[in-house]
Design a protein that fits this description.
Low-confidence stretches: 31-36
Structural class: mainly alpha
Mean pLDDT: 82
Number of strands: 0
Shape: globular
Radius of gyration: 18 Å
Strand content: under 5%
Number of domains: 1
Order of helices and strands: HHHHHHHHHH
């Protein structure tokens, strides 16, 4: 799988992703005001880091395919596309999960405590994987083949800290920002951290909606590639 992600095959990138970024993240969040809910903020920040890493790595896999000139081969047949999609999601999940595990492990070792329970970790992982797998393609694939194939990626990464309810629970957001955040399912992940609850019907509804939009975008991109 890493042959489709040559940038991560570099040991320098691995050191930055799995060593330097986790260390500086832990150092920063250890300086939080002791009167704040430090544990929830750290877990929320780790999730944001993992989501951003997933988006970035997923985009790198597809942009690498564009650079190699194989986008038409990928989108030419649905079976080929779904195999490549599965590979991109798997690589992105492994990289993002690995970094999150290192950050959580470092912080837990320093603080001598577990950040969240095992059941809550499972809920966060499942919802994060489902949400990332259906939302990320909507933003990444629509920019493929353009002069700036990372436009959709940069857009999603840029707005993610605001629409994901990372810094504060969505219940205390201003109305306009809460409304904007409800358009994406990312707030559902952070809601597990802030409230300890997950709404599976909403996860399914958001996933179905974004899955449909993603399928339409893939079909449109396929037509564009075939025409060109």
């Amino acid at each position: 799988m890493l042959k489709n992600l040559s940038i991560f095959a570099s040991w320098r990138t691995q050191v930055v992703t799995l060593v330097l970024e986790p260390i500086f993240t832990v150092m920063f969040y250890r300086q939080l005001n002791p009167n704040s809910n430090q544990t929830q903020m750290v877990v929320s920040a780790i999730i944001l880091t993992m989501l951003t890493q997933f988006i970035t790595v997923y985009a790198q896999v597809f942009v690498k395919a564009q650079v190699n000139g194989i986008l038409l081969d990928i989108f030419g047949h649905w079976s080929t596309f779904w195999r490549f999609q599965w590979r991109a999601v798997t690589v992105a999940a492994l990289v993002a999960g690995g970094q999150g595990l290192v950050i959580g492990g470092l912080y837990g070792a320093i603080q001598k405590t577990f950040l969240v329970s095992g059941w809550q970790v499972l809920e966060i992982v499942v919802v994060s994987l489902v949400v990332s797998s259906v939302v990320t393609p909507v933003f990444v694939i629509q920019s493929l083949g353009r002069a700036n194939p990372y436009f959709g990626t940069n857009l999603l990464v840029g707005i993610l800290p605001f629409i994901s309810a990372t810094l504060l629970p969505i219940s205390v957001y201003p109305q306009w920002l809460a409304t904007l955040s409800y358009l994406s399912p990312y707030w559902l992940i952070q809601n597990i951290v802030w409230t300890g609850q997950v709404s599976w019907p909403l996860v399914i509804l958001y996933s179905a909606s974004y899955g449909l939009v993603g399928a339409l975008i893939c079909q449109r991109k396929r037509r564009q590639l075939l025409q060109n």
